[in-house]
């Protein structure tokens, strides 16, 4: 991953001008991306969303014009399939828990790598969740401390050895294409396994699968 190959529209919503300009500079290098920095339009945020119809909104976690919860509600009200990638400046337990509750597609710290940013865009546009490496470690710690409990079914799902292998690779942040290449299987087959895993575990997305695997000991956490 790391290269955006499909056409998409991305809206940047960050009141920190230098950071927003940096995002714009990165996106300019992606030939298939059309982007708008909402701060440069001088138009109401919601009006820009409705006019531009972005597939993805890159938004600061504390964007002053609207809360993430209110933005999610607005998108649902207008039946928009726009995905949110939330960007945070600092590690915050409460912010992460709130975003998980809302069900945002991705959360990255602003110290993430360029590759993580581009990978998050590719992941969410294909319907998967994405969390940067720092956020994944943060999630794991919240689970260990018992402060976050992923949604789960009453009983441990019965998974085949192949399903467990694929789940472990998902937890290792391999994409479906990378898993398919590694296991000598087709992309469609891996996507079918992913869907089956979500149905069996009650997970909504890749992040949910990772949390499920951690909770039930399918993957072992490295000591921090």
Question: What would you say this structure looks like, in words?
Answer:
- This protein is of the alpha/beta class and 224 residues long.
- It has two domains: 8-144, 3-Layer(aba) Sandwich (Rossmann fold), CATH 3.40.50.2300; 161-215, Winged helix-like DNA-binding domain superfamily/Winged helix DNA-binding domain (Arc Repressor Mutant, subunit A), CATH 1.10.10.10.
- The protein is 50% helix and 12% strand.
- It has helices at 17-28, 38-41, 45-52, 68-77, 93-102, 114-125, 133-144, 161-171, 176-183, 187-201, 206-215, and strands at 8-13, 33-37, 56-60, 83-88, 106-109, 130-131.
- It has a six-stranded parallel β-sheet, sandwiched between helices.
- Helix 9 (176-183) crosses helix 10 (187-201) and helix 10 (187-201) packs across helix 11 (206-215).
- The two termini are 27 Å apart.
């Amino acid at each position: 991953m790391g290269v955006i190959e499909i056409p998409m529209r991305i809206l940047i919503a960050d009141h920190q001008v230098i950071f927003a300009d940096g995002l714009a500079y990165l996106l300019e290098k992606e030939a298939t991306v059309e982007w708008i920095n909402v701060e440069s339009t001088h138009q109401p945020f919601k009006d820009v969303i409705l006019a531009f119809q972005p597939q993805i909104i890159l938004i600061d976690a504390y964007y002053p014009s609207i809360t993430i919860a209110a933005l999610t509600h607005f998108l649902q009200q207008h039946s928009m399939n726009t995905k949110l990638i939330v960007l945070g400046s600092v590690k915050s337990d409460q912010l992460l828990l709130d975003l998980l509750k809302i069900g945002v597609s991705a959360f990255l710290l602003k110290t993430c790598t360029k590759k993580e940013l581009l990978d998050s865009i590719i992941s969410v546009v294909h319907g998967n969740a994405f969390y940067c490496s720092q956020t994944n470690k943060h999630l794991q710690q919240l689970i260990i401390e018992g402060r976050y409990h992923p949604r789960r079914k009453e009983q441990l799902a019965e998974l085949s050895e192949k399903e467990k292998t694929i789940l472990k690779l998902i937890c290792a942040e391999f994409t479906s294409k990378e898993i398919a290449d590694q296991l000598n299987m087709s992309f469609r087959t891996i996507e079918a396994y992913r869907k089956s895993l979500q149905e069996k575990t009650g997970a909504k997305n890749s992040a949910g699968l990772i949390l499920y695997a951690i909770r039930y000991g399918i993957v072992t956490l490295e000591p921090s």
